[in-house]
Amino acid sequence: MNPTASQAPIVSIANVTKDYTLGKVVVPALRGVDLEVHAGEFISIAGPSGSGKTTLLNLIGCVDTATGGVVRVAGQDTKQLTERQLTHLRLHTIGFIFQSFNLVQVLSVFQNVEFPLLLQRKLDKAQRRERVMQLLEQVGLANHARHRPNELSGGQRQRVAVARALVTRPQLVLADEPTANLDSVTGQNIIDLMKELNQKEGTTFIFSTHDAKVMSHANAVVRLADGKFLDRISAAEASRVMATGGH
């Protein structure tokens, strides 16, 4: 755990299940998962493809609902919230870096990053511009502010998604493979930015990754297998396990 992490869990998951129905077949994605993440932690979710990593992040991020069990975010039982309350929680508490980017194609890079700030209605135009340009500078895209997403490479679109997730300074950031489309140098820059926010502002990060180098920065690694919670281990131990191909 990060030394600055508080004792109050910002995420609490109890016996959570998630099933998907394909025709007449029920496919379990998560099977009785229990997990607590405290404010200020920097947590990696690891596991092979199909282990439930993205599903778990979607439940925590309130973009999907659990079939069973309880998901609490910032002390709130997400199943008990109205759609309006869920929207408020997503907008003011959570930043989400989607693996598929989910950028608005008709908006410029600047406008995509600014959009959450417009919805929040907390900053004036000058303040929004300063915040957005600061983030674009940090992710190396200040010179691309007027470009549209279709004019960018996959790695550049990923960095726009990172900036958009961080621009509201959320308490909790969820990232689904945040460095998957980036070269090693840019990926390291993104991880450094995430770590800086974690250490200086106490932002909680939960991210999935297959990259051992990215995983090594985590305070702890939560491993999933076949939709089940396997264990919670240190980043050093996770690196040893990956190196040996063991469990």
UniProtKB/TrEMBL annotation:
<dbReference type="InterPro" id="IPR027417">
    <property type="entry name" value="P-loop_NTPase"/>
</dbReference>
<dbReference type="Pfam" id="PF00005">
    <property type="entry name" value="ABC_tran"/>
</dbReference>
<dbReference type="GO" id="GO:0098796">
    <property type="term" value="C:membrane protein complex"/>
</dbReference>
<dbReference type="GO" id="GO:0005524">
    <property type="term" value="F:ATP binding"/>
</dbReference>
<keyword id="KW-0547">Nucleotide-binding</keyword>
<dbReference type="GO" id="GO:0005886">
    <property type="term" value="C:plasma membrane"/>
</dbReference>
<dbReference type="GO" id="GO:0022857">
    <property type="term" value="F:transmembrane transporter activity"/>
</dbReference>
<dbReference type="GO" id="GO:0016887">
    <property type="term" value="F:ATP hydrolysis activity"/>
</dbReference>
<dbReference type="InterPro" id="IPR015854">
    <property type="entry name" value="ABC_transpr_LolD-like"/>
</dbReference>
<protein>
    <submittedName>
        <fullName>ABC transporter ATP-binding protein</fullName>
    </submittedName>
</protein>
<dbReference type="InterPro" id="IPR003439">
    <property type="entry name" value="ABC_transporter-like_ATP-bd"/>
</dbReference>
<dbReference type="InterPro" id="IPR017871">
    <property type="entry name" value="ABC_transporter-like_CS"/>
</dbReference>
<dbReference type="InterPro" id="IPR017911">
    <property type="entry name" value="MacB-like_ATP-bd"/>
</dbReference>
<keyword id="KW-0067">ATP-binding</keyword>
<feature type="domain" description="ABC transporter">
    <location>
        <begin position="11"/>
        <end position="245"/>
    </location>
</feature>
<comment type="similarity">
    <text>Belongs to the ABC transporter superfamily. Macrolide exporter (TC 3.A.1.122) family.</text>
</comment>
<keyword id="KW-0813">Transport</keyword>
<dbReference type="InterPro" id="IPR003593">
    <property type="entry name" value="AAA+_ATPase"/>
</dbReference>
